[in-house]
Amino acid sequence: MGIRISTDEFGVKVWRNDRHGFPQYSVKLSRMIDDEWVNVYQDVKFRHGVELENGSEIIIDDGFVTMDVWKGKDGVPKGKAVWMILDYHYTTDRSREARQKQRKSAKAEDIPDSFSAAQDEIPF
To answer: Which regions of 8-54 does DSSP assign to beta strands (E)?
Structure first.
């Protein structure tokens, strides 16, 4: 058993950093709270030989969570979660347009104010 990762049809933007002489990648996870965006960057890795340009937009078809582990300067083992992306494809202009349209159409007044209101709209 493990944790599998995939994205919806909107995908994610991949950020590339070559600071240490080799490409390192991350994706940005965002959520709006109290009318302010909160962003977290999640480190990701790809199979050997895969290189993406900074700002590439991809749809993740398959991936899993793994760990990077190292010894700190004090000799104590440290680690962090990393997403290993096995299979992906680039987004299309159509998915970008759909994402922009969804962002414009999503409004706070569209969300039910109680669970019972949301439950009334469930089709089953």
So the answer is: 12-17, 24-33, 36-46
**pTM across the whole model:** 0.68
Is it true that domain 4-92 has CATH number 2.40.50.140? Answer: yes
The set of residues, in sequence order, having a beta carbon less than 8 Å from that of 23 and lying 6+ positions away, is 16, 17, 51, 52
Joined tokens for residue 94? 């159509």
Whether 89 contacts 47, CB under 8 Å: no
The residue that leads in pLDDT, 115 or 21, is 21
When computed from its CA atoms, the radius of gyration of the chain, rounded to whole angstroms, is 18
Q: Can you give the residue ranges of every domain in the chain?
A: 4-92
Interacting residues of 18 by C-beta distance below 8 A, sequence separation 6+: 24
pLDDT band at 24 (very low <50, low <70, confident <90, very high): very high
- Of the candidates 11, 14, 82, the one whose C-alpha atom is nearest the C-alpha of residue 53 is 14
